[in-house]
Design brief:
The protein is about 45% helix and about 15% strand. The chain is built from nine helices and five strands. The protein has a five-stranded mixed β-sheet with strand order 3-2-1-4-5, sandwiched between helices. The two termini are about 20 Å apart.
Length: about 210
């Protein structure tokens, strides 16, 4: 099923903390390219930023100091990651978090990401499925019937589930509003709306699509 008109890359970083401005760095990345309605390509790597991994991060993610010490250096991973993403739309669950780390690590190397548009699957879920008990990825996925195939809080596992959430949203838009393949630009626009305005906006877009 052709859920999306153009490719979207779902990304997830594991990090040493919450803010690159406070010196936190990336420890692992997964980037999954969604074409149509399925993941067709992926780039996954642990990352060595020559930093200490806090014990609570190891407890949360299972990523140890030894794992990152033996991983490819950030100067190798980030250029490959940016090449993988290219100018496709970028998505993440709580996308502003991952994008700020992407920009920070790229800037350290004098590089600039080229992705076209940012889609937050967390914001989208709040707007498309209002009233759910939680929009945290682990709880949201369970409410949507999407299961983790491996441990949460690892980049590939989280990115895989977030990708399935995004595909679920795309299929829901198609079945509920009679839309064909969804343009990522529509998802970007939905991110900017309040939840109350979303149904009317989507009905208008669906009608406009049938009139063209």
């Amino acid at each position: 099923m052709n859920v999306f008109e153009k490719p979207i890359v779902m990304i997830d970083f594991e990090t040493t903390g919450l803010s690159p401005d406070m010196g936190d760095r990336v420890t692992e990345v997964a980037a999954l390219r969604i074409v149509g309605g399925r993941v067709v390509e992926r780039y996954v790597s642990l990352i060595n930023c020559n930093v200490r991994i806090p014990s609570f991060i190891t407890g949360l993610t299972g990523i140890s100091q030894a794992m990152v010490d033996g991983a490819p250096p950030v100067a190798q991973v980030v250029p490959r990651l940016l090449e993988f993403i290219g100018d496709d739309a970028l998505s993440a669950h709580n996308a502003s978090f991952d994008e700020k780390f992407l920009h920070a690590e790229s800037a350290r190397l004098g590089l600039t990401p080229a992705h076209q548009g940012l889609v937050c699957s967390l914001k989208l879920s709040r707007r498309i499925f209002p009233g759910l008990a939680s929009y945290k990825l682990g709880l949201l996925s369970g409410q949507l019937g999407i299961a983790f195939k491996s441990a949460a809080h690892r980049a590939e596992s989280d990115a895989e589930v977030a990708a399935q959430v995004l595909i679920h949203i795309g299929r829901h838009l198609g079945s509920t509003y009679g839309m064909g393949a969804v343009d990522p630009e529509l998802l970007v626009a939905l991110n900017r709306l309040s939840a109350a305005k979303v149904p009317q906006f989507l009905h208008k877009r669906a009608l406009a699509g049938r009139d063209t």
